[in-house]
Amino acid sequence: MIANVIRSCFPVAAQAVADKSEDINKLNVFPVPDGDTGTNMSLTLGTVVREVAALPADSDMAAVAKAITHGSLMGARGNSGVITSQILRGMAEGLVGAHDPVTADDIAAAFRNSVKVAFKAVRKPVEGTILTVIRDISSRADRCAKEKMGVPEMLEALVVEAYESVARTPDLLPVLKENGVVDSGAYGFATFLEAFVNAAAGKAGELTDFDPTVATDDAKAGVSSKVQIELNDDWEGSEYRYCNEFLFKAEEGFDPDAALAHLATLGDCELVVGSFPDFKVHVHSNEPNRVLEYMLKYGQVYEVFIHNMDMEAHDRTAGIAADQAAAAKPAEPRKPLGFVAVAAGDGEAEILKSLGVDVVVSGGQTMNPSTADILDAAAVANAESVIVLPNNGNIRMAAEAAASASEDFKIVVVPTKTVPQAFAAMFAVDDQVSAEENAEAMVEAIAEVRDGEVTHAVRDSQAADGTPIHDGDIMGIAGGDIAIVGSDVEQVTLDLINKMQAEQEGDTLTILAGQDMDDERFEALCDRIEDVQPDLEVDAHRGGQPLYPVIFSIE
Asked: Which of 53, 241, 464, 539 sits between 20 and 30 A of 311, alpha carbons compared?
């Protein structure tokens, strides 16, 4: 029964991708870095595994297909994950009604449906990617079926075709050839397919022993010779900085085609996949707030992830450089104390590093790093004890989970809620005392910091004093409470500072400009602050954080 085969082989194939995820990640040199391909594919496949495992033991192919479709949609991460979800959907739906036992014609039909669904989801397909590979496999499947090939032989031929297609991707996409690599998503899918076929043939775990020889060409040997990771730091970025992805629960009247067309005016790489009422949305843009505001008109958004692709590109380069450096010299001994902090803006990250933070993890509002992200960053700090500054209340639990999971070194979490608190905490560091003693001093330091944030409302609400708030209003937030509501960023900032100074006078104001506030506006704002608060010393910096044009602290 095909449903039972899929249920037994899918987890094996998903695990193979998870095991190779870091190798796949390092291949991600497509001109628009979009998260880590291996990680995103692995997360997508992992969600499917859990959803299928939850089915009753006697579930038929229709139930399995529904679980694969829903699980891959809900778990899809990044462009590669979303496209993978549509490939899986097309394949699973194409197998509903297949013969028992499955035939070559059934498999060919399923691949044809997979190509149809996957290409329909992508407005501007790019050759030399996972889409090319699935199309090539489908064409080979049609030929195998026409030749009346047996299913086991057909599946092995499709794996060979997958690797041969992967090996051709650098000839179709110049950026791959320039970097000496194959397409990451394509390679990830070939890995998945080979592991699945091996599991179906009773050879689970034998990836390296599979022989993909065709005529005189050893396809996999060709792939191996191409997969050489090169350090490339000349990527200048795309027109758009942020990768926005989220799940969407649509209301009646939602038109996915109209939404897709509108998202194309806000950015590129736009995807709206799924079926009413559940959709997955993906788009690259410079204004995540506009993407969310538009979609909120037609339903509810949840599980929102916003990635800074500029930072991902630099992090990838730094990671490869670190790997190469580590391979070239003996491991350095661990230092006594290291520091990891979370930040959303480039400017914030630079300031934190100037204060002694070893590793900055990209994250903040709407893009919370995982426990694994924090644990990996702590390992890079290479210290016996690592102090982690989460800088957001929603990230604290992930940081504490990392502390509990760490076995090779100690992690101590200082519960900072904002980046300005982290600044104050780092000024309290004494490298001559223990991590615990430093943590105590840092907690005392952040207790002296009062924070302010200025952002815009995304729905109707009310302030702490009952003042009504309307979608699009500018809000001034102090200590987690909405204290000021207005229509102008600069005026709300001034009113919030004045209110906080009236409640408790401070001496120093540290203020960070977000990515949406240009230098001229920021300088004018600082001048106005100095005029109305002449006794307050203003320490101004560019933070580069998204969504919050101004954040500040008063001490």
From this structure: 539
Dihedral pair phi/psi, residue 243, rounded to 5° = -95, 115
Task: Tell me the pLDDT tens digit for each residue of 253-267.
Answer: 999 999 999 999 999
pLDDT of 216 over the 50 cut: no
* Residue 339 host element (H or E): strand 335-343
DSSP 209: G
Measured CA angle at 291 (ends 285, 296), to 5 deg: 170
CB 391 within 8 A of CB 343: yes
Distance (Å) of CA 388 to CA 396, 446, 473: 9, 14, 34
AA letter at 387 = I
**Two tokens, residue 516:** 């949406």
pLDDT of residue 474: 94
> What is the dihedral sign for C-alpha 160, 162, 166, 169?
positive
What gap in Å lies between CA 483 and CA 214, rounded to an integer? 69
More confident residue, 547 or 426: 426
Quick check: 40 and 80 in contact, CB under 8 A? yes
Q: How far from 129 is each of 29, 83, 136, 185, CA to CA, in Å?
A: 12, 11, 11, 7
Tokens 């970097």 label which residue?
179
Q: Residue range 173-181: average pLDDT?
A: 74
**CA neighbours closer than 13 Å in the CB half-sphere of residue 389:** 35
The phi and psi torsions of 75 (rounded to 5 degrees) equal -95, -5
DSSP 485-531: EES-HHHHHHHHHHHHHHHS--SEEEEEE-TTS-HHHHHHHHHHHHH
> Band of the pLDDT at 52, cuts 50, 70, 90?
very high
User: What string of DSSP letters covers 241-310?
Assistant: -EEEEEEEEEPTT--HHHHHHHHHHHEEEEEEEEETTEEEEEEEES-HHHHHHHHHTSEEEEEEEEEEHH
Task: Compare 532 and 372 and report the one with higher pLDDT.
Answer: 532
pLDDT of 373-420, one tens digit each? 899 999 999 999 999 999 988 888 889 999 999 999 999 999 999 999
* Residue 378 near residue 388 (C-beta atoms within 8 A): yes
In contact, 314 and 268? CB cutoff 8 Å: no
**Between residues 385 and 362, which one has the greater pLDDT?**
385
Q: Which amino acid is at 40?
A: N
Q: How far apart are CA 301 and CA 293, in angstroms?
A: 10
| 213 Cβ contact partners less than 8 Å away, ≥ 6 residues apart | 160, 219
Nearest Cα to Cα of residue 140 among 206, 196, 99, 190: 190
Write the CB contacts of 277 (distance below 8 Å, at least 6 apart in sequence): 249, 250, 251, 254, 299
**What's the whole-number average pLDDT of the chain?**
86
Structural tokens at position 463: 């302030």
Do the Cβ atoms of 391 and 419 come closer than 8 Å?
yes
136 touches 165 (CB < 8 A): yes
